[in-house]
Amino acid sequence: MSTSESQQVTIVVTGASGLVGSAIKQVIATEPLDSPYGRRRGERWVFLRSTDGDLRDPAQTDAMYAKYKPVAVIHLAALVGGLFNNMRHNLTFLRENLLINDNILWSAYKHNTKKVISCLSTCVFPDKVEYPLTEAKIHLGPPHSSNFGYSHAKRMVDVQNRAYKEEFGCNFSSAIPTNVFGPYDNFDLEDSHVIPGLMHKCYLAKKNGTPFIVSGTGKPLRQFIYSLDLAKLFIWMLREYDSVEPLILSVGEDEEISIKEVADAIVREMGFTGEYRFDTTKSDGQFRKPASNAQIMSLMGGFKFTPFDVALHETVKWFEENYDGARTGFKNSATEGKRAQPKEPEPTPPSSPRADSKALNAST
Ligand code: NAP
Ligand code: GDP
After folding, report:
1. Pocket residues: Cβ below 6 A from ligand 1
2. 285 in contact with ligand 2, CB cutoff 6 A
3. Ligand 1 pocket test: which of 74, 76, 150, 186 has the largest number of ligand atoms within 8 Å of its C-beta?
4. Which residue among the candidates 37, 65, 150, 241 is catalytic per the annotation?
5. Distance between CA atoms of 200 and 187, rounded to whole angstroms?
6. Which ligand has an atom closest to residue 191 CA?
7. Rounded to whole angstroms, how far apart are CA atoms 4 and 78?
8. d(CA 163, CA 167)
9. The CATH number of 3-181+224-253+289-306+338-363 is which of 3.10.580.10, 2.60.120.810, 3.50.30.10, 3.40.50.720?
10. What residue's CA is closest to ligand 1, atom 32?
11. What's the burial of 279, exposed, middle or buried (CB within 10 Å: 0-12/13-18/19+)?
12. Active-site residue 323, yes or no?
């Protein structure tokens, strides 16, 4: 290894082929070097997916840490699915995510990784609790029954982070995004989240002249964050945030919208003019889970979120242009190995006036 390589600090992003990881890769590849959300000199960013190592397996997880010796990890890898996938597979979501998260944190401790930010979700919060959700309310009661497996596995990360800090002094934290959408999402018809699922359904309804059917009543409310905005908030956390306390990463709680408003916006954006109805025999899931972003906004001093309609427009455009390489659940180029992916970031120059960032200094 050359001197310049040995002076580099490595940041690993797990789950980097997914919705959120692709957005972080895109931001890191496109923001200017040394800018607030860009790469910094002396950093090597490594973006991993399941084919680079199955993180359910302790040996493969440990081999990943031994190979890259990361100073920091943004841990996104997870078994992820929308309401209906979760309802069918609560045990699988519980077990796989417990295994992945336990392996990631234990190997990070063993390999002396300085910082880990794990990704939770607002479904960790109790079903019955006073709104808005805030970081202090995670453990105040059981989560909603529809996805209790995934929710409990994610909730345990907060418990683990606190225990690692108490026993070993580790700097492990967690982020709690609300519902996310954007390019590179999972557009499967059955197993995806609501926005990519409905986009794909509307796309096929328009193409085949069939009805566009939305599951449930359309009345539940959700807060959506654009994946590229979320990526910037993660990069901010990596640079600036060193507390075990989780941080909610979200648009404001006044930006809840109903599933019907989401479906209307997709119909508009896709130019669909056919029959459109709701299948009320299907579950609505949790009615709402509004989360406060006051904590991160006070720490960051504000952030300009992409308006929902603009982000939806960009996502529809990406989906239509990349249908063959998108994760549609059908046999296509994505399943045959030609999955659409953002380009790799350029290698960074070796030394940095800012490489002493408190979060990432290999000697901290
Ligand atoms: P995603 O698109 O489904 O991507 C999941 C990623 O995890 C992929 O890169 C996948 O790799 C990887 N992965 C899955 N199982 C793995 C394993 N056993 N070993 C190694 N890697 C594995 O998910 P996402 O929506 O980007 O979610 C990222 C994070 O955000 C997750 O922690 C999720 O819980 C959280 N989150 C998501 C949302 C949302 O609305 N999507 C909301 C809140 C929180 P392959 O591509 O190779 O399979
Ligand atoms: P959740 O926030 O974890 O419940 O995640 P989802 O992204 O799966 O959103 C679920 C909400 O969207 C529920 O109210 C569903 O009834 C509604 N919904 C409507 N159509 C669909 C669809 O095609 N897929 C999914 N996942 N949800 C849908």
Report:
1. 15-21, 49-51, 54-56, 76-80, 100, 119, 121, 177, 179-180, 186, 193
2. yes
3. 76
4. 150
5. 6
6. 2
7. 33
8. 6
9. 3.40.50.720
10. 76
11. exposed
12. no
Please give the Cα distance from 125 to 142 (Å, whole number).
8
Supply the pTM of this predicted model: 0.96
Q: Is the CB of 82 under 6 A from ligand 2?
A: yes
Counting from 1 in the atom list of ligand 2, the atom nearest the Cα of 219 is 14
Q: What is the helix (H) or strand (E) element at residue 295, kind and residue range? A: helix 294-300
Q: Which amino acid is at 35?
A: S
The three-point CA angle 309-17-252 to 5° equals 35
Contact 86, 283 (CB under 8 A): no
Q: Which of 75, 80, 78, 79 is nearest to 108 (CA)?
A: 75
Alpha-carbon 257 to chain mean position: 20
The residue type found at 135 is E
CA separation for the pair 298, 225 (Å, rounded)? 18
> Each residue's pLDDT tens digit in the chain (364 positions)?
444 555 789 999 999 999 999 999 999 999 999 999 999 999 999 999 999 999 999 999 999 999 999 999 999 999 999 999 999 999 999 999 999 999 999 999 999 999 999 999 999 999 999 999 999 999 999 999 999 999 999 999 999 999 999 999 999 999 999 999 999 999 999 999 999 999 999 999 999 999 999 999 999 999 999 999 999 999 999 999 999 999 999 999 999 999 999 999 999 999 999 999 999 999 999 999 999 999 999 999 989 999 999 999 999 999 999 999 999 999 787 777 788 999 888 888 886 445 444 446 544 3
Residue of the CA atom closest to atom 39 of ligand 1: 180
